[in-house]
Design a protein that fits this description.
Number of helices: 22
Strand content: 5-15%
Oligomer: single chain
Number of domains: 2
Structural class: alpha/beta
Length: about 600
C-alpha cells in the first residue's frame, strides 16, 4: 500500500537532504559487515576472557563462528518501576537462545534514571544528558566484538533513545528491543492531576497528595499515562524494532514472557549466519523515521521526541528537522486519546485495539510506509495484529478487528479526533520552538498577554504562592536549556499554571526548557532555541513585553519595535548553583559541547 503523496514528498525531501550523510553511514556499515564473523578476529587471549564464565559446551560453540552469540544490553534497576521486571529477563533470554541453538550473554548495563523521582530536583539536570551517556555505555558493552546480534532492555524517557543511538551506531548488528510493559491501571490520571492542583492551591496536605500519587504509581511496569516512556514503546513498534503487538502487554504475565522468548529467538534468526540478515542500520531508513514521526502525531505523543527523533535519525545518517516534524503533524490526524490528551491510560488504549489497530488505520489512510524492513520481516502490514498466548505457551497473532474496542480512546482515519497531530513548530523573533496542542482547548491556541519573566521554575512557584499571578500573563522561564543546566523538565509549573487557567486567566508558558510527554492543557512554547545561555532572543524579553503565541499560525512574537528588540542586550544569569552537586560537576563537558535543541540536543557531532 503506497503512502499518501504528501507523506511521500516529505520523505523524499528527507532522503535528498540526508543523501551524503546516509551514503557515508551505509558505506561504514557495509565495511563492518564485510569483515565477517567477529570472534575470528579476536586473539586466543581476547576470546578466553570473553567466554571465561561459559560452560564447556558454550566455549566450544563460541570458539568458532557457527553458533550465533546474542549480546544483551540491559537498563535494569529495581528503583524504576518500568525497569524492575527486567531483573529476570536475561535468564529468560539465555534459555530461549539455547533452545534456538545460540548463546546469549549480558554485554553490558546502562544507567536508567527516573524523571518522576528527579522532577524539580538537582538530579533532573542530568536527565537529558543521560541519553547520550546511555548510548556510550551501550557502545562500551558491544565494543567487545563478541556478538552477532543484540537485544535491548529499556523502556523509559532518555533510555530508549540512547539505546537506539547505540543500536544504529553498531548498525552492522541486528537489534531487537524487548519491552517490559505498563503497570496495571491505578488511580485515574485525571484524578491524580486534580489532587495535584488542590495541593498547589493549599486545599489539601502532603499526606493526601502522597496517597494519590502512590495509588497512581503502584507496582511494576511503565507509568500508565502517555508520556515519553510509552511514546518510546509506540515508536519501537511502529519503526519495526519490536515484535508485533509487544509494546503494551503487562509485566509478569505468561504472554509477556512468551514475547520475550520469541524476541530473543528472532534476534538470533536475523544474524549474518542465517538467511534473513537484518542489520539495524539498513533496516532503519528514512521511511522508518517518517513512520515513527507519524505514529507520534497520531497518538499525541511526547514533545521530547522532537529532540530524540532528530538525534536517533542522525545516528543512522538521516537528517530530520523540526520543519519535517511540523509538516507531518499538519498532515496526520490524531487517532488516540490517552492522558494527558484524554482520560484513558495506555492499558485502555491497548484494550481498544492498541498498536495493531492504530497501524492498520494509518496504513489505510496512507499515512505510513508499508514497504519497510522490520525485525519481523518485510512490511508494516504484519504489525496490524494482536498478540495472544497460544495453547502451548507460544505467541500467536490475530488480525485486529475493523472496529475500535472504544471509539472514545482509539478511532479511525475517517473519524479522527482532530485533523492534525497537534505538534507545531513555532517561529518568530524569539527563535524556534515547539508546542503540543492536542490537549489544549481550541480557544487557548492563541494567547496574547504581557510577559512575566523568571530565571527558574521556583521563581514562578514563589510568585504564585504570593498571589502575584492572578492575571493574564505569559510566563517566560529561561536559562533552562541544555547549555544552561541540562534542560530539565519543568513539570512543577503545571499545577500552578493549571490553577490560574481554571480561574479564567489567559496564561501560557515560553521556555527554553522541557515539558515533555506530560505536556497538558496549558499552552506551552518549549525547547526555544537559541537558548538564553547561547545568546538567544528569549534572554531579551522583559517584564511587561506583550507576547503573542499563535499555535494556529505557528508563530511566537514579542510585540516590541523590531529595532528596539534587536538592540537589547541579552540578560545573563548566575548559573553557578547548577554546576555542582548530585553529579552535575561530572557533566560540565556536556553543557559546554551540547548542540541546539532543534539539532537533537546532543553532544555527538
Amino acid at each position: 500500500m503506497a503512502a499518501h503523496p504528501s507523506i511521500q514528498a516529505i520523505t523524499a525531501r528527507i532522503v535528498e537532504r540526508s543523501k551524503p550523510h546516509r551514503e557515508a553511514y551505509l558505506d561504514r556499515l557495509q565495511r563492518a559487515v564485510a569483515k565477517g564473523p567477529h570472534r575470528t578476529v579476536l586473539s586466543c587471549g581476547n576470546l578466553a576472557h570473553g567466554f571465561a564464565v561459559c560452560s564447556p559446551a558454550e566455549k566450544d560453540a563460541l570458539a568458532g563462528d557457527v553458533v550465533p552469540n546474542l549480546g544483551i544490553i540491559t537498563a535494569y534497576n529495581d528503583m524504576l518501576s518500568a525497569h524492575q521486571p527486567y531483573e529476570t529477563f536475561p535468564q529468560i533470554i539465555r534459555d530461549a537462545a539455547r533452545e534456538a541453538g545460540g548463546i546469549a550473554q549480558v554485554a553490558g548495563a546502562v544507567p536508567a534514571m527516573c524523571d518522576g523521582v528527579t522532577q524539580g530536583q538537582p538530579g533532573m539536570e542530568l536527565s537529558l544528558f543521560s541519553r547520550d551517556t546511555i548510548a556510550m555505555a551501550a557502545g562500551i558493552g558491544l565494543s567487545h566484538n563478541m556478538f552477532d546480534a543484540s537485544v535491548y532492555l529499556g523502556i523509559c524517557d532518555k533510555i530508549v533513545p540512547g539505546l537506539v543511538i547505540a543500536a544504529l551506531s553498531f548498525g552492522h548488528l541486528p537489534a531487537v528491543f524487548i519491552p517490559a510493559g505498563p503497570m496495571t491501571s491505578g488511580l485515574p490520571n485525571d484524578e491524580k492531576s486534580r489532587i495535584r492542583q488542590l495541593y498547589a492551591e493549599g486545599k489539601i496536605g502532603r499526606a493526601e497528595l502522597l496517597e494519590a500519587e502512590s495509588k497512581s504509581y503502584h507496582g511494576p511496569g511503565t507509568c500508565t499515562f502517555y508520556g515519553t516512556a510509552n511514546s518510546n514503546q509506540m515508536l519501537m513498534e511502529i519503526m519495526g524494532f519490536h515484535m508485533p503487538g509487544a509494546s503494551f502487554v503487562n509485566p509478569g504475565t505468561p504472554l509477556r514472557e512468551a514475547l520475550t522468548r520469541e524476541a530473543a529467538k528472532r534476534a538470533l534468526a536475523i544474524t549474518a549466519q542465517g538467511n534473513e540478515f537484518t542489520p539495524a542500520g539498513e533496516m532503519i531508513d528514512e521511511r522508518s523515521i517518517v513512520n515513527g514521526v507519524v505514529g507520534l502525531h497520531a497518538t499525541g505523543g511526547s514533545t521530547n521526541h522532537t529532540m530524540h527523533l532528530v538525534a536517533m535519525a542522525r545516528a543512522a545518517g538521516i537528517h530530520l528537522t523540526w520543519q519535517d516534524i511540523s509538516e507531518l503533524s499538519d498532515a496526520v490526524p490524531l487517532l488516540a486519546r490517552v492522558y494527558p490528551n484524554g482520560l484513558a491510560d495506555v492499558n485502555h488504549f491497548h484494550a481498544a485495539g492498541g498498536m495493531g489497530f492504530l497501524i492498520k488505520q494509518l496504513l489505510r489512510g496512507g499515512y505510513v510506509h508499508d514497504d519497510v524492513r522490520t525485525v519481523f520481516g518485510h512490511g508494516l502490514e504484519a504489525y496490524t495484529v494482536e498478540a495472544k498466548l497460544g495453547a502451548e505457551g507460544q505467541v500467536t497473532r490475530e488480525s485486529v478487528p475493523e472496529v475500535s474496542g472504544d471509539p472514545k480512546v482509539l478511532t479511525t482515519v475517517d473519524q479522527p479526533f482532530q485533523k492534525s497531530g497537534g505538534l507545531k513548530m513555532l517561529t518568530g523573533n524569539v527563535g524556534l520552538g515547539v508546542i503540543k496542542i492536542s490537549a489544549v482547548k481550541p480557544e487557548r491556541h492563541i494567547i496574547e498577554a504581557p510577559a512575566v519573566v523568571f530565571q527558574d521554575q521556583q521563581g514562578l512557584q514563589d510568585a504564585f504562592k504570593r498571589g502575584e499571578l492572578n492575571r493574564d500573563f505569559v510566563a517566560v522561564v529561561r536559562f533552562q536549556g541544555p547549555k544552561a543546566n541540562g534542560m530539565p523538565e519543568l513539570h512543577r509549573l503545571t499545577p500552578p499554571l493549571g490553577v490560574l487557567q481554571d480561574r479564567g486567566f489567559k496564561v501560557a508558558l515560553v521556555t527554553d526548557g522541557r515539558m515533555s510527554g506530560a505536556s497538558g492543557k496549558v499552552p506551552a512554547a518549549i525547547h526555544m532555541t537559541p537558548e538564553a545561555s547561547d545568546g538567544g532572543a528569549i534572554a531579551k524579553i522583559r517584564d511587561g513585553d506583550m507576547i503573542r503565541l499563535d499555535a494556529v499560525a505557528g508563530t511566537l512574537e514579542v510585540l516590541v519595535d523590531a529595532a528596539e528588540f534587536d538592540a537589547r542586550i541579552p540578560a545573563v544569569a548566575d548559573l553557578s548553583e547548577n554546576e555542582f552537586g548530585m553529579g552535575r560537576e561530572l557533566f560540565s563537558a556536556f553543557r559546554r559541547n551540547v548542540g541546539r535543541a532543534d539539532q537533537g540536543a546532543s553532544v555527538f557531532a
